[in-house]
DNA sequence: TCTGGGGTCCTAGGACCC
DNA sequence: TCTGGGGTCCTAGGACCC
């Protein structure tokens, strides 16, 4: 059996740890640049505030219902998430961290210790609440695909107190019969529309479809999903995360940019971030892609989107090299006269960082460049981001995201630590 | 005034190979 | 009248996740 633990309205709950006054109030957390709603408390959901809704659309609701608005603050959320995962790991050794606020616990082999999984679920819930201060929902299921079903019922039905078990075949079938397709993992709006058009509204109806039809319209992934819903296959819990296949840094500018110099500085900053992530997973990249984008929502302004990739002469994880090629691409695709919202960089084509591919001219990355980058990583880890930086990163304020409603970084900054009276 | 960021996988189609 | 067969690799685009 598998246990899914997921935090209720994670970002909101994380804020409430340090702001108990937010308890019981409608609270929303905004995306970077304060653009969209990315988390809503139960009370905010009741006000029909939608996930992903643009902030500027909120309007009167905020005043009328005194909705608390908070800018996203990923550093403390990551910190809180780490605490949560470490506690779960104390209960069960084999866990898969699925996202910042969800984990699968593989309880195979623990049957004799935890004979009653529902009671165990309540124990987890109580411990997390006490030790970290987060409310979680718990689904107990034989297959991962069913986890979201169980967790949905755990949240939806108050009489289960946040823990729901799906084990017996007839109970599973009953649960699927009342479960809307859109809520199924891997069914998004597009697929939901298609299914609806064909009279398929529930997860149970989906299990009754023909394999050929499913694969034709929803690819082999869709077929895998339906097969697991039917109870035929089981995806194993992945204890160790696979290394990333691509690494991307492409935040929006706080204010639009149209001159090449500022873009270059912004791109430099993003490449530095990418390089850090790349070295952290011990990879080297063979391909650098850069892209530019105007604001697609501004129909009144001329639009420009372009992207181009360049292959490196050898795999590299040294920031100076990555910078050199990225800037080359930017210069090639830049066109003046557009208000750009984003310059992004993506690294891909990864090999292990110590991999040496034989080439015609034995052209390899200068090891000293990597060493410099690693030393900068160490110093920045100790003294703070960008303490050691490239002059080419500049100091422009354009790519600083807007965040008007920032809360303090209670757990990661001494200067912002919580005060007790 | 104003609409996130960072990933995954799959498929179709084109280029190219012998 | 009439233009091979079989394979690989790459890219763009579309779907999905939180």
- Whole-angstrom Rg: 24 Å
CATH-assigned fold name of the largest domain: Alpha-Beta Plaits
CATH superfamily of the largest domain: Reverse transcriptase/Diguanylate cyclase domain
Number of domains: 2
Count of DSSP E strands?
A: 13
The top-level CATH class of the largest domain is Alpha Beta
Q: SSE string, helix = H, strand = E?
A: EHEEHHEHEEHEHEHHHHEEHEEHEH
Indicate the overall shape: globular
The portion of residues forming beta strands comes to: 15-25%
Number of helices, counting only DSSP H or I runs of 4 residues or more: 13
> What is the mean pLDDT?
92
Distance between the termini: 46 Å
What does this molecule look like?
The radius of gyration is 24 Å and the shape is globular. The strands form three sheets. Strands 5-6-1-7-8 form a five-stranded mixed sheet, sandwiched between helices. Strands 9, 10, 11, 12 and 13 form a five-stranded antiparallel sheet that branches. Strands 3-2-4 form a three-stranded mixed sheet. Strand 2 and strand 3 form a beta hairpin. With 421 residues, it is of the alpha+beta class. The longest helix has 21 residues. The protein folds into two domains: 155 residues, Reverse transcriptase/Diguanylate cyclase domain (Alpha-Beta Plaits, 2-Layer Sandwich), CATH 3.30.70.270; 148 residues, DNA polymerase, Y-family, little finger domain (Dna Ligase, domain 1, 2-Layer Sandwich), CATH 3.30.1490. It has 13 helices and 13 strands. Helix 11 packs antiparallel against helix 12.
